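Data card: per-record layout.
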Amino acid sequence: MSYSALVAREGLSESHRLLVDAVPPGSRTLDVGCAGGYVAVALRERRCSVLGVEADPTAAREARMRGVEVVDGPVDDPKVQVALRAAGPFDALVCGDVLEHLVDPWRVLAVLADLLRPAGTAAISLPNAAHWTVRRALVRGRFPREDHGVFDRTHLRWLTLADARALVAGAGLKTVRESYTEAPLPLEARIALPSWVRSLAVRRLPTLFALQVVLVAQRPPADAR
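The structure for this 225-residue chain is written out next.
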């Protein structure tokens, strides 16, 4: 099932809702890897103006059908980056489950961060490559490839929570908030657990139990650069 079909059936994921909530209302926003424009539509409901970037032509067409302005092409293409510089600066940057699909997310995020105004907001979600399901698969000598999620076969980079923090810091951004998305705990399919147990586990041990990490960061103000 395509991501567009998944969102159409189930709505935005928890991580994408966290990204939308992180963007200040009314922000001029760059939505990197905007897919079919679902996040952009949610951002418009917060009175944001949105420019999307999308490498998949079919997804870009879907986004335009939803009224989203889109720059076509991969965000690591120098020509695309020139177009983004011409369109900037931006108040906010959203990278929802996109950086792990890039050959060099460290360089690309640094380029994108430079498109932000001073004190601008960057909201970034990444799958946690140290999630317990990944560790279990490796112990079993397996590494499954799936259409979605932490085992997405199109991922080129696998980042832990520590890697995600270093990625953001290396782009010259300062993390101001960290959130995590939940997933079933070990044996939860067999044992009914109260929802607060899962939430507590994710808060206490995000490196093990957080399925995704959402980092909200800021570009330093002009007088701090």
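Known properties of this structure: Strands lie at 28-32, 49-54, 69-72, 90-96, 116-127, 174-181, 212-218. The first strand starts at residue 28 and ends at 32.

See the next section for split statistics.
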